[in-house]
Amino acid sequence: MAAEWLKRFAETVEKNKEELTKLDQAVGDGDHGINMNRGLQEVLRKMEEVPADSPGGVVKAAAMICISKVGGASGPLYGSALMKIASALGDEEDVEGKQLTKALRDGVDAIKKRGRAEEGEKTMVDVWEPAVQALEQGSSWQELTEIVKKARDNTIDMKATKGRAAYLGDRSIGHLDPGAVSSSYFFLELACVMEE
Ligand code: ADP
Ligand code: MG
Ligand code: MG
């Protein structure tokens, strides 16, 4: 499940890397697509070379690559989230819904702690937190898909108070947050894999 999920996430980021870069040109330094794609292509290579034997193992390997290869603000944030998710998944072969939701809760909490960000600051937290809350409240994967897309689009009207976009102040309003968009891929691909 985790290998398929991260593979699809990597493929979607690759397909949309120019889009992510364009979004980051508007509110940041224009490298979010490059950063994410560099790390996730390495995750794909690693998964082929040394297939991990548990979902937790797959996610842990991806976490280490995010930390060492993605860079920017997003690398350590995704890296620490994936590291916590991996710990919560442990080395069990099968992951069920409740455990996955708990793992994703640990993941978003890690992002909020490391980035000192809360909801409403126009960051990836604005997708992660509503997505995890939806799962905690028992939403279906189909419902999650809708919630994630709405959460992503809600960042357009927000004013950034964390990350590079915060330098723009009010001028950050009117643009999607790049990290919220890459995070939407993360959850949308999870929903796709879990629905199958
Ligand atoms: P950088 O801004 O260093 O170039 P990226 O462009 O790869 O890094 O990532 C930018 C994204 O990281 C933003 O769109 C935002 O979603 C996320 N981000 C930046 N700072 C924070 C933070 N303090 N907390 C949570 N997310 C953040
Ligand atoms: Mg950037
Ligand atoms: Mg940068």
From TrEMBL:
Would you tell me the Gene Ontology cellular component terms?
cytosol
Q: What is its EC number?
A: 2.7.1.121
A single GO BP annotation from the record? glycerol catabolic process
**Keyword check for Kinase:** yes
Check the record and name the InterPro entries matching this protein: DhaK_L_YcgS (IPR012737), DhaL_dom (IPR004007), DhaL_dom_sf (IPR036117), Dihydroxyacetone_Kinase (IPR050861)
Please report the stretch or stretches of sequence annotated as the DhaL domain.
1-192
Where does this protein act, in terms of pathway? Polyol metabolism; glycerol degradation
Q: Superkingdom of this entry's organism?
A: Bacteria
NCBIfam families per record: dha_L_ycgS
Its recorded name reads phosphoenolpyruvate--glycerone phosphotransferase
Query: Which species?
Result: Alkalicoccus urumqiensis
Gene name of the record: dhaL
